[in-house]
Amino acid sequence: MKVLKFGGTSVGSVDSIKTVIEILENNLANGEQVAVVFSAMGGVTNRLIEIGKMAAAGNAEYIEFLKVVEERHFAVVRGMINVKNQSGTFAAVRGLFNELGDILRGVSWIKELSERTLDLIMSFGERLSTLVITEILKSKGISAEFCDARNIIHTNATYGMGDVDFEVTNKQILEYFAKTNALQCVTGFIASTADGVTTTLGRGGSDYTASIIAAAVDASVIEIWTDVDGMMTADPRKVANAFTIPSISYAEAMELSHFGAKVIYPPSLQPAFAKNITLKVLNTFNTDFIGTFVQKTANKKDYAITGISSIDEIALVNIQGSGMIGVAGISGRLFTALSLNDISVILISQASSEHSICFSIDPKNAQKAREVLEKEFSHEITLGYIDGISIEKSLSIIAIVGEGMKKSTGVSGKLFSVLGKNGINVVATAQGSSELNISVVISKSDLSKALNSIHGVFFQSETRSLNLFIVGVGLIGGTLLEQVKNQTTYLREEKLLNLNIAGLSNTKKMLLDPDGIGSEQWRERVNEEGVKTSLPAFVQRMIELNLPNSVFVDCTSDKDIVQYYNMLLDASISVVTPNKVANSGSYAEYISLQRTALKRGVKFLYETNVGAGLPIINTIQGLMASGDKFLKIEAILSGTLSFIFNSFGPGVRFVDVVKEAKAKGFTEPDPRDDLSGADVARKILILAREVGVPLESSDVRVAQLLPENCLAAATVEDFFQELIISDDYFAKLQSDAEANGEKLRYIATLENGKAFVELRTVDAQHPFYTLSGSDNIISFTTERYKDRPLVIKGPGAGAEVTASGVFADIMSISSYLG
Ligand SMILES: NC(=O)C1=CN([C@@H]2O[C@H](COP(=O)(O)OP(=O)(O)OC[C@H]3O[C@@H](n4cnc5c(N)ncnc54)[C@H](O)[C@@H]3O)[C@@H](O)[C@H]2O)C=CC1
Ligand SMILES: N[C@@H](CC=O)C(=O)O
Ligand code: NA
User: Fold this and answer.
1) What is the pLDDT at residue 99?
2) Domain membership of residue 715 as a residue range
3) Residue 341 is assigned to a structural domain of this protein
4) What is the pLDDT of residues 740-778, one digit of tens each?
């Protein structure tokens, strides 16, 4: 025999009942006997409870509410049974509603609603749905019979959650099914006492009915038909990427039952599990889907774990003291006291030092737990053997579950590592020696981030996601977004990396969308949906969103923005930037950013601070890490100045070359920063710091290349005017150099702890002579590269090369995330 069970949504509407009929017809076609258990129509049980309470409160409106429930059942009859045959069913349904109406009237008279009466009122939900569907089946010519489970399942008189008398029940079920071959339509959830008083089976009640029957008759299978695709790897409301688990063991299903309760409530399936009956969880609304098989032993898994479950809100109680060490009986007394007071313990952890025990409970029991324990241990507390009871709230538990972790290494490593990388603090942890479940207690505010990042490493290890928050969509930011757009498919398909643009801001508008702004229509979306830009609000929202693998990308030259870097890094958000302001501010700030990133295990990356995309910072960091010592750095670090000196000559105005550099995207947003030497000065300052020389910006000596009048210009426009006026000055610089067969080069040097930048002329022998375009060149003399320096050369400014350097930094974070 086969046992099927349909939940409330499956029997909730005419359309879904049509599917139920089809499923039943298909099953009957196989010839195997079928029992089918029905829940009440979706929402009806809750409605009946409400109606019962209204009646008890003397609120006559319950009558109207009851009419609505009645009409729902009538509507199904009208929708499913031919007009000619409806009357019998209508009469039967009306009969049940009359009976229920009488009971409710009684409740409203005596103004009392006992658990026993409530069970009786609730029983009408299943009795009605099952009656209606039985009649529908019969009207379709199917040999179906209504089976009132109260006649076969007996419980004690614990109302609300009757204790099943299996001896009697199993016997009655066997006798009942031995007598019939018809399709048995059984009322779920309800039972009765030996003397015929209606009871209910508590949580997961209809599943329990199915399970009790299946176990009694040794059914071949139980099919639980519900409204989702089976048991999922995580709660899909919290983890968008959760997917159906095809095969799961009983034990795993039990462990996952916290959120799995929505789908099945495994404890209610225990009788079937005990008989080794396979359970299938199937979707009435997606009948072709394979669903989840629950069996004693699950099929081999593709993943190290089977699923992730969580409890949103718990309180953690800690009891500690020197008097607990080596003293037997403390934990016995502790848990006895809790159990005598009906406080259920969710998780327990005690370190081998025996100095403390912590356990988690439902927060609504927290105060009671404190009182109970303070009373139990009052003597020890007075004597100072126990320090007292501390309770922490606003915590959540996440458990990873799976038989696959048994005796396999690396699972807990992976769990703790992903939590660490995302800056999620683990408050407590527990793993039983069954190795089926590792539980961690974390702050509730980290729950969503933790679930998603854990799900990511265990189930989507092939596809990793980075959440990008980009501020500044000018030349570099805009080009970066273009590059991201062009690479999205490649990265997803070839590198299994999903770049999610979760936030964007220009100076006017900002938009944050954790689901992704998209790299195609970002401009339109920011314009249309964006709100007025506010950097503090942007940063605050990012921190609140608390998305895993978040990266803040600062593509501005803003001075104020850098004050947020520390805060972001501290919130475990990596920072990537071409903006040089932070690293060229005070040395204390530079160091503090490095330290915060290190402390939080996130990245602060700024390769494009010097030489745009050229691998300069990375090279230095590699050499420093491997113990090389820098003796000298000599470099051309301005793409703009390089371009100018390579393009300026007879027949060209200096100002036009500067304007061309700006048009080509080489200059700073304000080109005076390039021509004043300020940009080069801050670059050599950053390099000095990277090689371990703790300079301040005032330590860098800058020899001006501009005449006074240009330096004094108040605006960029004025500046260009002054350049025109000074054209002869620049022409002479250039022609003097050329006359000597030399070239003008603006060179930065770091030697003996001193940094300076100056305009020099170099002859054809000098390695810096043969530069073209916007080339930068950096020559490192180190202990290892002493005889011949290490030289890096190439375009050191411009949109494409800079944006790709920023992109490469972002990519390096993704590989670090593993
Ligand atoms: N252009 C280049 O070759 C290189 C540039 N860089 C650096 O890249 C950064 C960006 O340079 P570009 O893109 O060329 O400049 P840009 O002026 O074209 O872009 C900067 C953008 O940031 C916006 N912005 C400024 N403050 C903002 C704020 N608080 N909130 C939102 N948006 C803000 C501006 O409106 C502008 O659209 C600068 O720090 C620059 O030093 C670094 C290496 C090379
Ligand atoms: N304006 C800068 C851009 C790179 O940092 C330059 O010209 O080098
Ligand atoms: Na670089």
Assistant:
1) 98
2) 617-797
3) yes
4) 999 999 999 999 999 999 999 999 999 999 999 999 999
Q: How far apart are CA 746 and CA 704, in angstroms?
A: 10
Catalytic residues: 683
Ligand 1 pocket mutation pick from 470, 527, 554, 555 by most atoms within 8 angstroms of CB: 555
Any ligand 1 atom below 6 A from CB of 476: yes
Q: Which atom of ligand 1 is nearest to the CA of 679?
A: 41
| pLDDT score of 674 more than 90 | yes
Counting ligand 2 atoms within 8 A of each CB, the residue from 479, 609, 679 with the most, and so the one to mutate, is: 679
Residue 513 has pLDDT above 60, yes or no: yes
The protein residue whose alpha carbon is closest to atom 43 in ligand 1 is 612
Which pair of structure tokens corresponds to residue 711? 């330096």
The answer to the question of residue 612 being in a domain is no
The answer to whether position 605 is within a domain reads: no
Ligand 3 centre to CA of 618 (Å) is 8
Mean pLDDT of the chain: 94
| Whether the CB of 558 sits within 6 Å of ligand 1 | yes
770 and 790 both lie in a single domain: yes
Does 677 lie in the same domain as 565?
no
CATH number at 350 reads 3.30.2130.10
pLDDT tier at 182, thresholds 50, 70, 90 = very high
**Alpha carbon 211 to chain centroid, angstroms:** 35
Q: Average pLDDT of 641-667?
A: 96
Domain count, the chain: 4
Q: Which atom of ligand 2 is nearest to the CA of 580?
A: 5
CATH number of the domain enclosing 496: 3.40.50.720
Question: Which amino acid appears at position 639 of this protein?
Answer: G
Q: Residue 354 pLDDT > 80, yes or no?
A: no
Rounded Cα distance between 656 and 660, Å, is: 6
* 679 Cβ inside 6 Å of ligand 1: no
206: domain CATH number is 3.40.1160.10
Residue 668 CB–ligand 2 contact under 6 Å: yes
Query: In this predicted complex, what is the ipTM?
Result: 0.98
Task: State residue 260's pLDDT score.
Answer: 46
Same domain assignment for residues 575 and 470: yes
- Residue 579: nearest ligand to its CA? 1
b or e along 714-743 (b: 16 or more beta carbons within 10 Å of the residue's beta carbon)? eeeeebbebbeebeebbbebbeebeeeebb
Taking the C-alpha atoms of residue 218 and residue 210, their distance in angstroms, rounded to an integer, is: 12
Collect all residues with Cβ–Cβ distance below 8 Å to 385 and sequence separation of at least 6: 321, 322, 323, 324
pLDDT, residue 407, reads 72
Q: Reading across the β-sheet that carries 345-350, which strands appear in turn?
A: 345-350, 356-361, 307-320, 388-401, 437-443, 426-431
Q: Evaluate if residue 818 carries a pLDDT over 60.
A: no
Whether the Cβ atoms of residue 144 and residue 138 lie closer than 8 Å to each other: yes
Q: What proportions of the chain, in percent to the nearest 5, are helix, strand and coil?
A: 45, 20, 35
Compute the distance from residue 508 Cα to the ligand 1 centre, in Å: 14
Residue nearest to atom 17 of ligand 1 (CA): 669
180-204 b/e (C-beta count within 10 Å ≥ 16 → b): eeebbbbbbbbbbbeeebbbbbbeb
Q: Considering the domain boundaries, does residue 169 fall inside one?
A: yes
Q: Which of 265-269, 380-384, 412-416, 603-607 has the highest mean pLDDT?
A: 603-607
Ligand 2 within 6 A of CB of 673: no
Q: Are residues 489 and 454 in the same domain?
A: no
116: its two tokens: 């026993």
Whose atoms come closest to the Cα of 606: which ligand? 3
| Confidence tier at 259 by pLDDT (50, 70, 90) | low
pLDDT in tens, 622-634: 999 999 999 999 9
Taking only the tens place, the pLDDT of each residue in 558-613 is 999 999 999 999 999 999 999 999 999 999 999 999 999 998 889 999 999 999 99
Q: Is the pLDDT of residue 428 over 50?
A: yes
Does ligand 1 have an atom closer than 6 angstroms to the CB of 612?
Answer: yes
Q: Are residues 220 and 340 in the same domain?
A: no
Cα(611) to ligand 3 centroid in Å equals 4
Q: Is any ligand 2 atom within 6 A of the Cβ of residue 666?
A: yes
